Structure formats: C-alpha cells, structure tokens
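A common beginner's mistake is to predict each chain separately and then try to dock the pieces by hand. The better habit, illustrated here, is to supply every component at once so that their relative placement is modeled jointly.
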Amino acid sequence: MSSAETTPEIVTLKPAKGWLSLDLKELWRYRELIYFLTWRDIKVRYKQAALGVAWAIIQPVLTALVTTFVFSRGLKVQTGDIPYPLFMLSAYLPWHLFANSLTRSSGSLVQNANLLTKIYFPRVIIPVASVMAAMVDFLISLFILVGVMIFYRVPVTLNILWIIPFTLLAILSALAVGLWFSALNVRFRDVQQMVPFIAQIWLYMTPVLYPIMINHPIFRFVYNLNPMVGVVDGFRWALFGQTPPDLNILVSVAAVLLLFISGLFFFRRMEKTFADVV
Amino acid sequence: MDKDTSIIVKGISKRYRIGVAQERADTLRDLITSSGQRIGSIFRKKSEPKAGIDYIWALKDVSFEVKQGQALGIIGRNGAGKSTLLKVLSRVTDPTEGYGELRGRVGSLLEVGTGFHPELSGRENIFLNGAILGMHRKEIEARFDEIVDFSEVGQFIDTPVKRYSSGMYLRLAFAVAAHLEPEILVVDEVLAVGDADFQRKCLGKMGDVASAGRTVLFVSHNMSAIQRLTQESIVLDKGTVLLRAPSNEAVDFYLNRGLSKLGERYWEADEVPAASAPFRPLAIRIVDKNGVVSDSVRSVDPITLEIDYQLEQEVTGLRVGFYLFTTRGEPVFTSFDTDSSELFAEHTSRAKGVYTSRCVIPANTMNEGRFFLGLNASSYGIRRYFQDEQALSFSVDASGAPGTHWPEARPGAVRPVLNWEIEKKA
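With all components supplied together, the output reads:
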C-alpha cells in the first residue's frame, strides 16, 4: 500500500460533454493492461491448437502457394525480376497484418462487452491491444519472408530496415479504421458483418497480388489515398530496392493521419455511451 | 473537498432510454430509414431528450458524502438504482447530470470474475484480472501467494479455469478482487456466491478493508451483513435517496416499507450471476385464490406460490424451493418441490427447458404480517445453483381469521386453525 502521506488523486465524475480531450496520462497509467490484453489474445488464440503459433506462418505460406498458382501460372501476372511468390509475400505480410488488425479491432469492443459494462479503464486500450496481438503474428511471419528471400537468392540488405516505418504505417492505418469501426460496432452490429467484405474489396484495391500499373499522376494520387498502397509500395522498395517511393507516399501518410486523428476523437466521443449501449 | 472526505456526490442523475435492450438491435436499416437523423444524434450534444422517446431516470438528484475510512451501506430493492449508482461511482458510465469527486483509486467488485478467461490458467487469470482491476504487475506479484492462499485453489493454479468447479472459480475471482487495495472499494452482492464458510471469509476480509482506513461502499440484500459491516446506510428507492441513517435504523426503515409492491419478481439475464448456470431463475410470484398475482393475500385463503425458471442443460437431483422468513429474519419454514418421495423419484433429472414449480400454502397457515420468500435451487450435496434470500416479500392479512373478533395483534408467524374442544368437567 502507498504511504499515507501521498495524497491520492481526486477523480471527478461529471456528465460527458462535447469532444473530450485525449487523456494520455490515464492511458499511460494503464499501459500494463494493454500488455496483458495483448498477451491474453495471443495465448488464447493458440491454446488447444496442436500447431500453436506455427499457424502464424502456415497461413501466409498457404496463401502464397495458392495465389502463385492462380496469378502467376494462371493469369500470367508479370512481376519483373522478382519471383512471384516473393513478390506476393512481400506485400501480403503487411497486408495480412493490416487486415487482421482491422478485423480484430473492429469487433473488439463488442467481444469485451462484459468488461465495458463492469469496470472502468480507458476504452481505447481494447482496440489497441487487439492490433498489438496481430503485430505478434506479423513479427513471426517475417522469418519466412527472410527465408524465402534467401531461397531465391535475393540479397538482404540494410535497406530492409525501412520496413519498420512502413509497418508502423500499416498498423496506424488498421488502428485508424479500427477505432471508427469498433465504436460504430457497439451501436450498429452491421459493422461486423461488413468488415470481412470491406477487407476483401480493400485487398483488390491494393497492389498485393499484382504490381502497380498506374502511371497517370492524378490517378496515382487518388490511388495513394488508400494508405495500404503506400505501405505495400514501401515494403517492396525496402526489400528489393527498385524504384523508391515518390512523394505520393505523403498522400498515404496524410490520409492515415487524418483518419487516425478523426477516429480517435470519434472514439472518445462515443466511449462514454459504450457501457449503456453495448 | 476536505482532506478527510472520500466521496462527494452532488445531484447525480442518470437517464436511460427505455428499452435499451432494443438499442442493441440497432441496425443500419433503422439508421437509413430514419434518414441520417440517428447519425446526427451521434454527433449532437446529448442535451434534452427528443420528444416521442421515453426515458427513465435510474438515478435522480442523488447527493451524499462519505468520510475516509467509513463503510457506507446502500440498500434498496431491485431497480432502485443501486447498481447504476455503483456504475457511476466506479466510472463505468457517466452521470447525465450532477457532479462528484472521489479521492483516490476506486476498485469495484461489481461482479467477481469479470475478465476471467476460461482458457487461461488460474495463475494467468490472476495477472490478467489484476491488471483489469487496475493493479500493477508488481503489486500482483507481491500479493500472488496471499491471493492463492485465500482462494484455496493452490494445487490447481496452473490448470485452465474452465476445468475449475464453480466454487473454485468464484473463490479465485474473489481472492483477486479482495486483494486489490484501492482507496475506495465498491462491493455489490458478492456475498451471494460461495458456500457459507467462504462467505464468512469474504465478510471478514471486507471488515479488514474497512478497518484499514479505506472507504467501502457496500450494496447487499443481506441485511445482517449490512448491519455488521457498515455504520451508516442510505436507502435508495426509484433512483432517489430516501434516507440516510445509522445502519440499524436504515434497515428497519427499509424492511418496514416493504420490498416489493407487486407480488411478483422477475430476473433479467444480467441480474443472475453467471455461476448459477445452468439454472436461471425467471420469476417468482404469489397468487391469491382468484388467480391474481398479489402482494397482499388473506390468511384464510390458500396462497399459491410459483417459481419460473429455465434450465440451460439437463440437471440431476435438482430441487427448487423457498425459505419463508419474517421481516425480522426468523425462518418460518422451508419447502422444496421434490420433497415428496414420488416427485423426487419422478424428477431425478430435469431436461433442458423452461419450468414452473408451483405449490399451495394451505389456508389458515400464516399469521398477519409481512414475509420474505427466499429462493433456492440446488442439488443436495452437489451444488447450490442459485440463492436469493429476499427474492420477494408479501403481506398477509388476517381479517376473517379465527380470533380476529378480538382486535389485538397475535404474536407468531403462523396462525393455524386448531380444533378446540371445550369440555365441562364439573
């Protein structure tokens, strides 16, 4: 117990008014909860699965095999010097991270309804923790990426470190959309029905299975409003060192920031009603 | 706020939309048909309620103060606003109006076991649950052994809790919650769980918390626990504070007012502890001789008692019954639906489904006064599924009963009609 001299902080109760400011201090105080919820998600996901964490690797590998067959052999998609499986994996892994985080975070508040209605903590922790759990899968799957690169004798250079900022961009994108969707889902369960569909469409709008084929500057600008275009483009550059991303990457970054900040405020606005509505 | 004040609440009110349950079913179709009106409402400041929508005030203008180290009881019948008040105080939901200040961390035992994950082991759940309740990892580590000791699950600490018996599960859950050391502890009805020994232990632990100088808010239907653990209590009814008084007075006031006016009590799904599964009480009611649900019945008429419940899966050896108490808590009698050996043999196991157990208290059994019915569902020697010692209260009116031509109060809980003979001996 803390010593009697330290005066405990005074907490105020009052009606929620307007757009609340972000309480980062409170979030920091609850940082361990993010860790524990992430840890719970990972533990529980692979409990009673004979192959356990290996699923984090098996899933993308199988997808790579199937898409290679369809797109490379069947549709004869041209990917230049890079073998198709590698071309596809380099984008599929960050994509998978994004789609996974998005799906998990969108449903996260509703899944944790029993916590929301019983206990106080900053609500934003819940979608954040579900994104973190997807991140762990991603880190594990990075090993196969490096493995496949070595297999195809693609040199692994220090340039690979550039995937770090692009990974962050992918996470931020997922969290941005996840904040909107999770908060909306508390009220409208339609969201969780729509998410798989949205993720599917989004995949086709992102150059994961095929290379970017747009050169017109205006179309390219519009294309990059999809932040995952910037992420995927950046990943391929970091790994294979072809044409570096141009200024269009800033379009993606700006789009993400806008979505993220608005999502954060929307979430804060809605969170006061979660316990009453969920 | 004074230095020795722990909680100040001023004019707190909380409004809910009626049929919040329906809000769950909100769909985009509703949204589209109301042509964006709803979306607008998300962004608009929630000011005055729109016409045409019904609201209820779960709390209305509640004000009180609690000094540091004080244990305050909160009494009120179901729906009086107790749970809402605790939710507001523990910041789960915001008040619609009013203002409050709390000095220090609030720990709530709104429902033990919240945040437990069945797949995780006891050890893992202690850490997870501790973190959810706002403890730091170091604090949990420091108290880990104490928690395990208290819970008495020792050797099963690395077993997934889904393999625990419900008793072990609850003991572990309570142990974690009881060892968090907030400045303000909010306790709601935890004592409804566990066996008598464990309940005693929980009460003892809460007594320690209060005597250690921390503030305790204690909600319970167990009046003797309220009297034992708190010096003062507030009585809530329809969302307002009716009385604040020393606990003995508050309990008297509350009991004499009568718990229920309807003669019928329903349980919503969220009022039933998860640990009761597969038994789920639905309703209990008193029916008079005309078949009307009533809170006030006559001593000279037979009284029908009905208990509706649902079994979520087959249950073996189940008995559902009631305890009858006077308002002072003296037991009058106890009866179960499988007391007769024929019914016991016929219902050795009950399949999944919805049931009613019904019995008739014969005419001329009860004396006038107010009585409580406690509901109990258990399998003898195996498990108690559900117990609510004050599920329902009702009044008995003795008018017309033998002896009422003398306008006097007769002591005693029963008023049987006895066949007197008067013999002249000489």
